[in-house]
Amino acid sequence: MRTNVLTVERTVRVYWNPDYAGMRTMIVVESPMDALRLLREGVRVKEVNVGGVTYRKGMTQVSEAVSVDDEHVAAYRAIHELGVPLTLQQVPSSSRQDMMATLKEKGMLR
C-alpha cells in the first residue's frame, strides 16, 4: 500500500488526472467541510465514514469518538443532500451506525 498526504486542492487534481484512473483509494480528510469540498469538486465516493472527531470547546459529543459543532452538522447535512451515505464507525470491528440518524437522535438536526 502506498500513502500520499495531499491538500484538498491537490487531491482533486490527482483524482481527475487520467494517469491515476482506476486506482483504488481511501481518502482521509481533516474535517467534514473538507469532505464536502471534495464532493463539490466532483470526487465520487461510495460513502463517508466518520471515524473520530476530537471534542473541543463548543462541540457536542454525539458518540464515544465523535463530537460536532454547527459547521460540522451543516457539512454532514450537505453531504447527505448530495446523496452520499454517512456512517459512524470508529474502527472496523465496531458496529456501523447511520450518522444522520445519530445526529437526529442527539437533537442536532432540526
Automatic annotation (TrEMBL):
Task: Report domain PTS EIIB type-4 positions.
Answer: 1-110
**Annotated signal peptide:** none
Q: Note the InterPro entries from the entry.
A: PTS_IIB_sorbose-sp (IPR004720), PTS_IIB_sorbose-sp_sf (IPR036667)
Keywords recorded for this protein, A-Z: Cytoplasm, Kinase, Phosphotransferase system, Sugar transport, Transferase, Transport
**What's the short name of a Pfam family annotated to this entry?**
PTSIIB_sorb
Write out the GO biological process terms.
phosphoenolpyruvate-dependent sugar phosphotransferase system
| PROSITE patterns, per database record | PTS_EIIB_TYPE_4
Q: Does the keyword Kinase apply?
A: yes
Location of the protein in the cell: Cytoplasm
Q: Tell me the superkingdom of the source.
A: Bacteria
UniProt GO cellular component terms: cytoplasm
Entry's Gene Ontology molecular function annotations: kinase activity; protein-N(PI)-phosphohistidine-sugar phosphotransferase activity
Q: What is the protein name stated in its UniProt record?
A: PTS EIIB type-4 domain-containing protein
Give the organism's phylogenetic lineage: Bacteria, Bacillati, Actinomycetota, Actinomycetes, Micrococcales
